[in-house]
């Protein structure tokens, strides 16, 4: 039961930048093993001397990262765009009891009691409001242990601060979209030196396209338009982050990606054009996105429509993320969805042959993924993909269990 003066077994003191602290890391549902591997990968990329040896434990919905300092966490914060949240553990108690009837109310009281602890984490001259802190605090419990954490983002990390809302759309969250793109690259052993044709059928609001660009540019979180709470903490390692950014910019691949956004709904064009303007303004440079209205199944010459010139390109790759389909959800196709998914499998196969024949020996990779809402639809697609390497995982989006089928045509070259 909640005590007015909570007897915290552990409460964080005002830490220095090198202090070893405990954290909780959240990711899109269904990606626990993959998220663990990629958090380790990012931490291994850090080239700073005398960093503490961290401990990472995997749970269904989160990772517990122990003994990591703010320099290490800053790298995850800046470049782990597949993460949903990073939270610092600020208080714990292992002698908590609650009754099932008022657990939520008691939890809220516990969170309120931790506000003074959280305030000590902020810069001395930062007059941060209790409301801002309260919104960033989270409570959780397991048996008799209760934990209070504070989010480094304040709101979910997938909100990049650039994309405009669209009332008629329910896009895949940016963190999940980023994860699926990265997962495909790793599955297909994607060659980052290739010029790439990113083909987005059923483009919708273009989330896969914008996340690809963030990845390609190694965009750090702190440069995005939104402001996070991490930047207000006294232990925010500003110089270290500047060092990370300098190192990353030196690694940014200058090979071009031409994106082709295709959707059946002409009303989306105005939104997509605005998106293009917003992102060009953010990056302060021209972005190679071609926007068009059309039916994926009837577009037989995507390279010609997108105006991608292969004449001076010796080698290229094709990347195909498919979230079917925006137009069908608006009843713009007369066929049922079973026929649709069978057609999708055949279309992917056809595109592999099309790109391979488009310029002799120039196509080096052809990979992508498709989101399938049922086992039956997943089978319809995978049975049509002859000669493709395949892998399937399960993720959750909007309460729906989705099968993600990754495919790779590389072995055909």
Automatic annotation (TrEMBL):
Record-linked InterPro entries: RlmKL-like_Mtase (IPR000241), SAM-dependent_MTases_sf (IPR029063)
Ribosomal RNA large subunit methyltransferase K/L-like methyltransferase domain span: 168-350
Superkingdom to which the source organism belongs: Bacteria
Protein name: Ribosomal RNA large subunit methyltransferase K/L-like methyltransferase domain-containing protein
Source organism (scientific name): Leptospira ognonensis
């Amino acid at each position: 039961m909640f005590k007015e003066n909570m007897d915290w077994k552990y409460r964080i003191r005002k830490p220095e930048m090198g202090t070893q602290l405990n954290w909780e890391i959240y990711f899109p549902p269904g990606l626990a093993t993959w998220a663990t591997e990629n958090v380790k990968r990012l931490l291994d990329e850090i080239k700073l001397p005398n960093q503490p040896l961290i401990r990472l434990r995997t749970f269904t919905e989160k990772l517990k990262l122990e003994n990591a300092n703010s320099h290490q966490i800053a790298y995850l914060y800046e470049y782990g765009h597949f993460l949903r949240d990073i939270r610092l553990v600020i208080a714990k108690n292992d002698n908590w009891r609650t009754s099932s009837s008022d657990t939520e109310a008691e939890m809220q009281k516990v969170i309120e009691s931790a506000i003074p602890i959280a305030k000590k984490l902020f810069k001395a001259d930062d007059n941060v409001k209790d409301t801002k802190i309260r919104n960033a605090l989270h409570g959780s419990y397991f048996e008799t242990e209760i934990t209070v954490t504070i989010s480094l983002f304040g709101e979910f990390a997938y909100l990049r601060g650039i994309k405009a809302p669209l009332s008629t759309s329910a896009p895949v969250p940016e963190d999940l979209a980023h994860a699926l793109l990265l997962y495909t690259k790793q599955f297909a052993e994607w060659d980052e030196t290739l010029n790439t044709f990113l083909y987005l059928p059923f483009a919708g609001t273009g989330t896969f396209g914008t996340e690809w660009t963030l990845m390609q540019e190694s965009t750090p979180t702190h440069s995005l338009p939104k402001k996070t709470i991490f930047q207000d903490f006294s232990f925010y390692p500003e110089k270290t982050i500047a060092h990370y950014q300098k190192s990353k910019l030196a690694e940014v691949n200058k090979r071009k990606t031409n994106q082709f956004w295709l959707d059946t709904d002409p009303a989306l064009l105005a939104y997509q054009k605005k998106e293009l303007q917003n992102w060009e303004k953010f990056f302060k440079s021209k972005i190679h996105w071609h926007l068009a209205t059309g039916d994926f199944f009837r577009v037989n010459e995507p390279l010609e429509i997108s105006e991608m010139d292969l004449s001076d390109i010796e080698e290229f790759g094709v990347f195909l993320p498919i979230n079917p389909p925006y137009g069908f959800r608006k009843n713009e196709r007369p066929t049922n969805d079973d026929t649709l998914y069978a057609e999708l499998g055949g279309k992917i196969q056809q595109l592999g042959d099309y790109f391979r024949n488009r310029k002799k020996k120039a196509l080096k990779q052809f990979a992508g993924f498709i989101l399938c809402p049922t086992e039956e639809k997943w089978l319809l697609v995978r049975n049509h993909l002859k000669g493709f390497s395949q892998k399937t995982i399960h993720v959750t989006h909007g309460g729906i269990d989705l099968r993600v089928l990754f495919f790779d045509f590389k072995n055909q070259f």
